[in-house]
Amino acid sequence: MAARHLDGIDHLILGVRDLEAARHAFARLGFNVTPRGRHVGWGTANYCIMFERDYLELLGILDPAQFTNGLDRLLALREGLLGMVLRSTDPSATAAAWQAAGLRPDGPKDLGRLLEHGGPDGQMLRFSNVYPAAEATAGLNFFACHHLTPELLRQTAWLAHPNGAVGIRTVTWLVPDVPPVVDVLARVLGPASVTWTDEVAAVHVGAATLLLARAEDIGMLHPPLARLEAPAAPVAVAMGIRADPDRTSDFLGRQGVAHEVDAAGGITVAPAEACGVLVEFVAA
Questions:
Q1: Exposure check for the chain: N or C terminus, fewer CB within 10 A?
Q2: Share in percent of the chain as helix, strand, coil (round to 5)
Q3: 0.90 cut: is pTM over it?
Q4: How far apart are CA 12 and CA 169, in angstroms?
């Protein structure tokens, strides 16, 4: 990954139809949510759940008359994990590496997000993003992000989550066929990042792991998802969050959130409680 100037997952994007309802839903799961951010010149806005090295983005539409970058079309189909963003240490170098790998990237392109504090003193967060050509990704939705204002991205208070969460551990993708997606990720991240177990692939991205499985195998990873049908394109269906399971279970119990505890102590929350995504809390 170093040769491609990538050093892990930057954040995961969860598309939501009602941004305020999503904020309440994830607060009920024990996540500390940032102030709302508004994308400059776009009709979209977000709330973020910050960890020390990565974060979750709850993304919704405030003004459908403005540019939504296709979010309206995606939300017409479903809520949930829409894609992942890789962290680039040098967006120009990442673009060059992806060009050499046949991904035909667009960018770097700059984007701003106004962090709303309820007054005119809101801070402007700035990013530089690199996007692979859609036809070169086997349907996998991802891009790379470099933070131009890292000092504004996190505040210490935002990192304290009542459920004990500290970061992203896994992302599970339901795919129509595993090898084509693995081929893309091997070009993005390097072939050494891939490990196979029968028909399921694990792709290592910094401290996190991407799990790729077909519909007939997804139940081995996540029993509650065993009845999912094969998708036409890759869909992220579950995320594992590193946490303190005792704190997580205690908080969820006090909130009245239904959850299951497995033999290893991991805690699972159903998609209906988390805007369409299965959430697993595992020991940090």
A1: C
A2: 30, 35, 35
A3: yes
A4: 11
Q: Which of 165, 197, 209 is nearest to 27 (CA)?
A: 165
Block residue for tokens 């170098």: 93
CB of 211 within 8 A of CB of 178? no
* Bridge partners, residue 108, by sequence: none
Which amino acid is it at 146?
A: H
With vertex at residue 101, the alpha carbon angle to CA 95 and CA 104, rounded to the nearest 5 degrees, is: 55
CA distance 212 to 174: 6
Cis status of the peptide bond prior to 245, with omega within 30 of 0: no
Give, for all 284 residues of the chain, the pLDDT tens digit: 556 799 999 999 999 999 999 999 999 999 999 988 888 778 898 999 999 999 999 999 888 888 888 888 989 889 999 999 999 999 999 999 999 999 999 989 998 877 765 444 567 889 999 999 999 999 999 999 999 988 888 889 999 999 999 999 999 999 999 999 999 999 999 899 999 999 999 999 999 999 999 999 999 999 999 999 999 999 999 999 999 999 999 999 999 999 999 878 889 999 999 999 999 999 98
Instruction: Report the amino acid identity of residue 175.
Output: V
Whether the CB-CB separation of 270 and 254 falls below 8 Å is answered with no
Distance CA 105, CA 267 (A): 38
Supply the DSSP string of 137-191, one letter for each residue: TTT--EEEEEES-HHHH--GGGG--TT---EEEEEEEE-S-HHHHHHHHHHHH-G
d(C-alpha 226, C-alpha 231), whole Å = 13
Q: What is the identity of the amino acid at 77?
A: L
Amino acid letter, 275 = C
